[in-house]
Amino acid sequence: MPVLRDWFVLEMLKLVHIARMKHELLNNRLFAKNRQRFAAAMEGNALAIFNSNDEMPTNGDALYPFQQNADLYWLTGIEQEDTMLLLYPSHPDVKMREVLVLLRPNELKEKWDGHRLRRQEATAISGIETIVWLDALDGLLQGLVHQCDTIYLNTNENDRRANQVPVRDYRFIEDMKRRYPLHNYQRAAKILKQLRAIKTPEEIEVVQRAIDITAQTFRRVAQFVQPGVMEYEVEAEVLHEFIRNRASRPAYNSIIASGDRARTLHYISNNQVCENGELLLMDFGASYGGYNADLTRTIPVNGKFSKRQREVYNACYNLHQYAKSILKPGISLNDYTSKVGVEANRQMEKIGLLSAGDIKNQDKENPAYRKYLYHGISHHLGLDVHDLGPRQEPLKAGMLLTVEPGIYIEAEKIGIRIENNVWLTKTGNKDLMAAIPITADDIEAAMRRPKVQAATKK
Question: pTM for this one?
Fold first, then answer.
């Protein structure tokens, strides 16, 4: 892969940064390595085709903010709409082994919507040398298809969501099978689910940047929160700190839930007052360079845990630490969840939520702890917040997962969740959020405002 070294390309990088990105330009070796990994998993004499997401309408002539198809981004780093990637690793012409297809820059469109990528810029971002315009694709694509035996096409195979919208990938599949019915078609998503689950060191470097921004944001809001602030004011502080540190966007809708609202797992109204004596559950993460952080912390609104709040918090913290200690290559998510459940019963018995009888007589299909912890403990993380990754197979080194147990007590109007992001390696876990305050004492210390020194008369 050519190294970017000449003055002209460096100037192009500056233009790309100004026109299309908040984040700094990523090293394109990240995307080149991802393409190499995918190509190595393909059948012989095969062509793989990847499409960008659609631009989605809201009402009238307005569009939702565009977000790139995560698979296409994983392979190219290109965030622009109307983009395609063609991979043909065994093509005899080296120039045809990786082809990036872009929308041809249009002067009028740029006056309305801003700069579109030129060839040199797209090469600088992706590392792909062969760039063609979308309006010239048909002739090129037909020749490649006629030469290959197998065609890999892509769909969304995330187990958490069944997509009923006829998005571009599905329309493209129908068109390809109509035009070329005799080819062997294969699922690109089956390969991507395995590959994207294993994060390279280059990917983790970008994730860590997103986490560092998130960490800085937590410290800001810890100083900001006090009785009487509105949840939306806290959310505004989060968004402000994200953007001023070059995050592309929030990774997801921030959850700022004070008091009993913390028991609602996906609470995003964020429109109530944070009262003295309540706990505030905050679940937010920055997105940087396409990769996401996912942090949850629960803090006392007044800066000091009550005795009971601290007791429940410590039980959740102990459960978090236990879960992190057993989340290792070789364990399946099912076995992991079962083991964490046993520890959850134990921690909840210690703080009086469960009795020995509750645990002894529990329904194996609905364990006792589920009354107070009714969500999963971990999920894959990466370009998607709930990222691609196998759920039944044993975990492998290189996977990046959250660890996020919670305890939710309706009678006490308490909801506590503690979440860090953990990279599994052959030599052990690496907690990418280890520098963010997590113990009750550390959180209280982070919330203390510096005392204003009175002026001393001379």
Answer: 0.92
